[in-house]
């Protein structure tokens, strides 16, 4: 990817519990030229989450209609949870038209879509260890044993396989996300993004 081209999208990815959302929020607080891309999902909102703020919460029918009409150009279906996640194109187009950089939290499918269609820089956020990851997931909102098992299975695949496809891997140390953020900001400044 040429550094002379303006970066359009910054991707954050990583397993559930890696701290990618925390790092993304910290970056958005520092980067006035960046705006969070809100993606779509069919999962139910957790306590405190809001439609159009955390996700676009769609019914399964609405989501499938979005795939059909091109408003959701990339998505993933988590079979064990019967849940869909995907990019909501009208939201992305609005950010890019405003001249801002979209900051997206997506999986490898989303990252590959962005890489193919936009000037993108991608970060895979690693936990300091798998044990720390397990404890972070368990300490979050109450989830069933089945959901925990599925998240850990997905996390293992993401860390061992998917992470290799990203531009950069950044370890998010326990209790010190600012260290990971400093590393991310240095990389982005090298790419001429003013932060």
Overview of the molecule:
The protein has helices at residues 20-30, 60-69, 89-97, 108-117, 130-139, 145-160, 177-190, and strands spanning 9-13, 34-36, 40-41, 56-57, 75-78, 83-86, 101-105, 120-126, 168-171. The chain has one domain (9-189): P-loop containing nucleotide triphosphate hydrolases (Rossmann fold), CATH 3.40.50.300. A hairpin with a 4-residue loop joins strand 5 and strand 6. With 195 residues, it is an alpha/beta fold. The protein is globular, with a radius of gyration of 16 Å. It has seven helices and nine strands. A five-stranded parallel β-sheet has the order 2-7-1-8-9, sandwiched between helices. Strands 4-3-6-5 form a four-stranded mixed β-sheet, covered by helices on one side. Helix 1 (20-30) crosses helix 7 and helix 5 (130-139) runs antiparallel to helix 6 (145-160).
